[in-house]
Amino acid sequence: MSEKKKVIVVAGTRPEVIKMSSVYMELKKSRTLEPIFLSTGQHREMLAQAFGAFDLKPDHDLELMQPGQDLTGLTARVLQAVGSYLEETRPDAVLVQGDTTSVLASAMAAFYQNIPVGHVEAGLRTYDMQSPWPEEMNRRLVSPLCRWHFLPTEVSKGNLLQEMIPEASCHVTGNTVIDSLLWMSHKVNAEENRTAAVAKRLKIPDPFRKNFLEQEDKRWILVTAHRRESHGGGFDDICRALRQLLEDHPGVGLLYPVHLNPAVRKPVMEQLGNHERIALVEPAGYEDFVWLMNRCYFALSDSGGVQEEAPSLGKPVLVMRETTERPEGVEAGTCELIGTDPERIRSAARVLLEDPCEYERRSQLKNPYGDGEAAKRIREILEKTL
Fold first, then answer.
1. What residue numbers bound the domain in which 119 lies?
2. Within 13 Å and on the Cβ side, how many CA atoms surround 348?
3. Residue 228 catalytic?
4. Which of these is catalytic: 44, 60, 228, 265?
5. 135, 179, 325, 336: the active-site residue
6. Which residue among 16, 26, 121, 336 is the active-site one?
7. Is 135 one of the annotated active-site residues of the chain?
8. Helix (H, G, I), strand (E, B) or coil at 9
9. Residue 82: inside a domain, yes or no?
10. Rounded distance, CA 375 to CA 174, Å?
11. 147 and 195 inside one domain
12. Same domain, 12 and 145
């Protein structure tokens, strides 16, 4: 049997590890392909946590994160380090996922060495370079460099065809995040007595744990918000809306795993701290976050991953952004785009909290992002074409 072809699977941030773990595990099953998990270390603190959730470790870690890193320095370091690694290992293909700095710089490094690139979760667009910034630039620059475009939906395929990307290189696979979510959901749901362990890990205050997590009939909202375009005034608006929302609904709680970025932590801690029905907790590992999504009433989020994942668990999502590169969820009704205006946030949340029929309708809608078979489709495509 001929030697297996080496495929470098690149991840630099927590969401990339989550969305690429299912791909890596699937490629491990291949008789013709040998996956190598490469971590750039763009988000140091959260990466080990994400790898550990899937019982994985990177095969090689570039450890590039530096305190106070800016985008220029990070881009240069990833380009240089990944380029050197590829020159040393000479793989047959490189897979990148999504739209981070690691994705753009890794794709460029592979392109410079004539190594074919596959882009997982390709074709997402807002067509607004400032929102999300710099992610919209990253994913639009990556597309022309790639041989394979693994697309979550027909909408994303249409975006690339409009940009003159050859149709033969466009493969609608579904989103690998659904593969990872279903795998993890099965794992955490099989465990008993998880509430106390999650509360301890995330430092959830005892009153919130007792009043909400241990009471099946108590409703609480899961919040995630960290995007750069909301830093400053946007976060002030979000925090003001959340406090008022709880004043409007005295029986409702709110749990917010707060991102490590100081531009997020400072306003959130100042404005949402010291409220008995608000739990500001540490960033949750993937296992714990999936458990939280399963338990919450609905999600208020600016995260792309939550827009894709929560509907598979029957949870509506209110998206605190002005634009989204995931319009399929909005069109399906599983997600609602509400921006950061306090009144819009309160109004949209009020519907879900006060209209049980509408809540039930939206929680039953089909997730447009996939069926849990995306990684298998990617493996089969690579086996045939590499």
1. 5-175+371-385
2. 25
3. yes
4. 228
5. 135
6. 121
7. yes
8. strand
9. yes
10. 9
11. no
12. yes
Identify whether residues 206 and 164 lie together within a single domain: no
Catalytic pick from 77, 149, 226, 362? 226
- Residue 308 sits in a domain whose CATH number is 3.40.50.2000
Question: Do 198 and 116 reside in the same domain of the chain?
Answer: no
Domain assignment present for residue 301? The answer is yes
Query: Which of 259, 265, 275, 344 is the catalytic position?
Result: 259
Query: Catalytic pick from 16, 99, 136, 308?
Result: 99
The answer for residues whose C-beta is within 8 angstroms of residue 132's C-beta and 6 or more apart is 99, 126, 227, 228, 229, 321, 323, 325
Please classify residue 147 by burial: count the beta carbons closer than 10 Å to its beta carbon, then call 0-12 exposed, 13-18 middle and 19+ buried: middle
State yes or no: is 99 an active-site residue.
yes
Per-residue pLDDT of the chain (386 residues; tens, 9 = 90+): 579 999 999 999 988 999 999 999 999 999 999 999 999 987 676 788 889 999 999 999 998 877 778 899 999 999 999 999 999 999 999 999 999 999 999 999 999 999 999 999 999 999 999 988 999 999 999 999 999 999 999 999 999 999 999 999 999 999 999 999 999 998 888 777 789 999 999 999 999 999 999 988 899 999 998 655 554 556 788 888 999 999 999 999 999 998 777 777 887 888 888 899 999 998 888 899 999 999 999 999 988 889 989 999 999 999 998 888 889 999 999 999 999 899 999 999 999 999 999 999 999 988 899 889 999 999 999 999 99
Residue 28 domain-assigned? Answer: yes
Predicted structure pTM score: 0.84
